[in-house]
Amino acid sequence: MSTQTSPEGNPLRDPLDRRLPRIAGPSGLVIFGVTGDLSRKKLMPAVYDLANRGLLPPGFALVGFARRQWENEDFAQEVHDAVKEHARTPFREEVWQQLAEGCRFVQGDFDDDTAFETLKATIEELDKARGTGGNFAFYLSVPPKFFPNVVQQLKKHGLSEGTGDSWRRAVIEKPFGHDLASAQQLNQIVHEVFPPNEVFRIDHYLGKETVQNILALRFANTMYEPIWNRSYVDHVQITMAEDIGIGGRAGYYDGIGAARDVIQNHLLQLLALTAMEEPGSFHPKALTAEKLKVLSAVVLPDDLGKNTVRGQYAHAWQGGEEVLGYLEEDGIDPKSKTDTYAAVKLEINNRRWAGVPFYLRTGKRLGRRVTEIAVVFKRAPYLPFESGATEELGQNALVIRVQPDEGVTVRFGSKVPGTSTEVRDVTMDFAYGESFTESSPEAYERLILDVLLGDANLFPRHQEVEISWTILDPIEEYWDKHGKPAQYASGTWGPAEADEMLARDGRSWRRP
Amino acid sequence: MKIDLTDTTSSKINAGLIQARRAIGTPAVGMVLTLVIVTDEGSAYDSLKAATEASKEHPSRILVVVKRPGRSPRDRAMARLDAEVLVGSEAGTGETVMLRLHGELANHAESVVLPLLLPDAPVVVWWPDDAPPNAAEDPLGRLAQRRITDSSAAEDPVAALGHRAESYSPGDTDLAWTRITPWRSMLAAALDQKHSKITEAVVDGEAYNPSTELLALWLADRLGVPVERRVSDGPGITATRLSTADGDICLDRADGRLAELAMPGQPDRHVALKRRETSELIAEELRRLDPDDIYRSTVQFGVKHLISNPGGAETVKPDGTVKPADKAPATPAKKAAAAKKAANAK
Fold first, then answer.
1. Fewer Cβ close by (within 10 Å): the C or N end of chain B?
2. Is A266 among the residues known to form the active site?
3. Are A171 and A137 in contact (CB under 8 A)?
4. Is B199 part of the contact surface with chain A (CB cutoff 8 Å)?
């Protein structure tokens, strides 16, 4: 008979009992801007999926806040419809019943004091009726210009601080500013109200299984670590390509551009995870320390003109459709200099990576939707084959496919069957996506659960955001003063200038 | 794609698997384990369906071993292996081989299975109904890292738990244990919150439901308090009550779907606690292939009580004494089986 208790004093928990999932404690989620697309397509379904997997606490509360004239029932209906349409797991009446009892809606504007008083009353009512214990996360699914307003209102009405042991957390979405100054200002506004460790910045890429798998691939295996350095790696290409245009987001996108929208957060985070040293543990502090270290070692090339490229998609036929160029899109100034494609070359000044370029590129209306990290290795120093035998042999590469078709590909040379010796590139494939998609959770599920558990591992800290801006700001400044974006035909892999940029280094872009 | 092989051998089946994979154009495979299902014609269909469903999460090679020793001496004297190879859409994300072992061959299943295991990948054996008394010593069980039994399918489920406890070796697990994971996680989550000391506990559940026993044993083991096991009409486990000085922490599920959680000083709340399909249970089992120490501790905690009290241990006290229940579910058959078992144990 054992009567030992776990470290937290709960006798039913045991570190050896790995079947028991982490269930969030009593808590609720308040979504501002609940009528938006993100909330309908991602957040509500993610909340349902969590409930369906039994990971939400009994009595979990979901509060919507928006301008629309809705009653609680209308809101519940909206959540119901969103869940039915977008949830990953099958719809089950009893799960829905559990969730629906905790649905509330507060109608109002962000500067409306009465609405925030109602919100406060709603939260108190939920504490009584649902036992949420005063623990609430505020999800700001609103444009950043409303952030100051909302957080100030939360503070003014005493919503930003819990009483006793209870917590209040703020969840914010990108963009985290548009340059260093604005990012710092934003951080200041949010931190004035919420302490830094209670602010969760969502970078949904970090919630993806494949991105978390980078850490497993690098730090759980022995075979990659010895070659993961400048002695073996020739260069690294990190690509995030979209095949869609800006759609209806002209107002948001124009003036921001691809580099700010994607490179500053997603690509630099992927770079940090690929290049960082092994953290002492997976504690958020240890992880953040390593990411900060590698991000602060990033240096820009001296000649920004030659080592950065930006472009705009042009009118063309893409995948069987005729599509408009960026400058012809609705609501875009025909003289706009906003980049829809950006490619930059970065280097990392440390012992592991000195001299290994990291090429980052992103763009809209490219060949296909794909995100991948390609670690390209040096050629073998000597090839003992007769001339011609290795003509078709490229460089070895390890490609982490982040999305879609998640997985890892290894490219290496193999003999072509036949009497002569001829070596050609082949691939070895690990298909994460093919076999596991069915049950691998959506990024938002993981992230919302982590917010409720207070686990900050998968969220960029404000220092990371600020360092990322210091990397990007000089490039944006240079672009502002010099030239204009190159045009590239929609559906291709970016402007010719980008190919020339790599050709100058004797390299070429992988076709993802 | 489906290939039928009559009067065949393991190497012909292996060749068939490669041929089938080539034919559908996916020569590379990302299968992570081999799942061997040992069953009879009667439950082969349901078990295979559940396993195929689970293979979406854990792409695997599924080997269904159906033993047909034969009814007449003539049948028993001959030996024949028939196989059905299924690759592609029919087999979920992996490959399936139905093996029918006729006659004398039924006693040598491991000789057929061994050459068909995936190289360097874990092996899981699952007995959906008739598990051998000692799973780890079974010729097929010996090939596996993970051995899944299901005591709820046994004639005398509580006695089956006793067998499992006696013959436990690392890697054993039982679906009756898997079934209570949602209960256990909900109760653990309830105790994550502040509560006063628990003095005793009650678990209500259907008769012949070993999951109820396991939940009671787990609570007794972990909490170190007397736990009473009561019989209700079901379905499955219907309620768990943990008594504290401030009142009861009670998780009540009358309909097998939606439960109500009551805690002192807090409003009553609904919790979805659905009884799960076999495929979900198998998927959970395949998620971790390391020995389950908590299962060992739970099932072995109870075994001495189960043996010392043939009527079925209704109240398990931490000091090992047992209080007979008010409403014992014991039927003559069950009593007899338990008594026989106790006799064997001596």
1. C
2. yes
3. yes
4. no
The count of structural domains within chain B is 2
Ranked by mean pLDDT, which of A230-234, A335-339, B10-14 comes out on top?
A230-234
Domain span including residue B7: 2-149
Residue range A21-49: average pLDDT?
88
- Location of structure tokens 């050629």: A379
Q: A444, exposed or middle or buried, with CB in 10 Å at 0-12, 13-18, 19+?
A: buried
Tokens linked to B337: 């089986």
The two most distant CA atoms of chain B are separated, in Å, by 72
SS3 B36: strand
Q: What is the CATH number of the domain that holds B242?
A: 3.30.360
Q: Which of helix, strand or coil describes residue B212?
A: helix
- Alpha helices by DSSP H, B92-146: 109-113
How many interface pairs between A and B have CB atoms less than 8 angstroms apart?
123
- Is pLDDT larger for residue A373 or for residue B159? A373
Is A1 close to B224, i.e. CB distance below 8 A?
yes
Q: CA B259, CA A196: separation in Å to the nearest integer?
A: 38
Of A21-25, A360-364, A433-437, B260-264, the least confident: A433-437
Bridge partners, B62 (sequence order): B35, B96
pLDDT digits (tens, 9 = 90+) for B162-182: 889 889 999 999 999 999 999
State the DSSP code for A166: -
- Domains of chain A, with CATH numbers? 28-173 (3.40.50.720), 207-441+459-504 (3.30.360.10)
For residue A161, give the 3-state DSSP assignment.
coil
B242 touches chain A (CB under 8 A): no
For residue B252, give both structure tokens: 């009540």
A58: distance to nearest CA of chain B, Å?
Answer: 5
- List the helix and strand counts (H, then E) for chain A: 17, 18
